[in-house]
Amino acid sequence: MPNADEVIALVDRILLAELAGVVSHTHASLAVSGVGHESVAQAMREQADISLRHAREAGAILARLGGTPTLGIADLPTGQLDIVPTVLFGAIQAERRTEYLYSELLDASAEHPVYLEAFARSQMSAQQRRGATMRELLTEHEAR
After folding, report:
1. Enclosing domain of residue 22
2. What's the pTM?
3. Cys staple from 51: which of 22, 79, 80, 137, with CB 3.0 to 4.6 Å?
4. CATH code for the domain in which residue 43 is found
5. Phi, psi values for residue 33, rounded to 5°
C-alpha cells in the first residue's frame, strides 16, 4: 500500500506528464504539415487544451493531498515532429504513457480519500478517449 508521500509523488508525475502534453501538442499544432495537416493541427490544439485542464486538475489534487508541484515538465518527444503520421503516433504513445500513470494512481488509491479513486478513473477514461481520437485521425490520414 503506497503511503501518502508516494501518492503525492505519483500525482506530481501525472502533473508533469500533462504539462508536457500541453507543450508537445501545442508544438505539433504549429509544426505539422502535409496532406490533411489542418485537421491534425486543430486536434492537437484541442489536445493541448485538454492536457492543460488535466494538469490543473492534477495540481488541485496534489494541493488537496498536501503536496507541492514540481516546477517542470516530463520528457518531451524528439525527432521528426512535423509529419502527420509521426505527430499522431507520438500523441498516441503519450496518451498511453499518461494512462499508465493514472492506472498506477488508481491502484494506489485504495485506503486513500475516495476522490482520488474517482479522479484516477475519470482521467483514465479521458486518456482512453484521447488515444482513440488520435488513432481515428491516424486511420483517416492513412486512408488518403
Report:
1. 4-70+79-143
2. 0.93
3. 22
4. 1.20.1260.10
5. -145, 175
Length of the chain (residues)? 144
Q: Is pLDDT at 37 greater than 90 in this prediction?
A: no
d(CA 29, CA 25): 6
Question: In sequence order, what are the residues at sequence separation of 6 or more whose Cβ sits closer than 8 angstroms to the Cβ of residue 90?
Answer: 24, 28, 77, 81
pLDDT digits (tens, 9 = 90+) for 66-106: 999 999 999 988 766 678 888 888 889 999 999 999 999 99
Domain count, the chain: 1
* Three cell numbers, residue 2: 503506497
| DSSP code per residue over the chain | ---HHHHHHHHHHHHHHHHHHHHHHHHHHHH-BSTTHHHHHHHHHHHHHHHHHHHHHHHHHHHHTT----SS-PPPP-S--SBHHHHHHHHHHHHHHHHHHHHHHHHHTTTS-HHHHHHHHHHHHHHHHHHHHHHHHHHHHHH-
Q: Are 92 and 131 in contact (CB under 8 A)?
A: yes
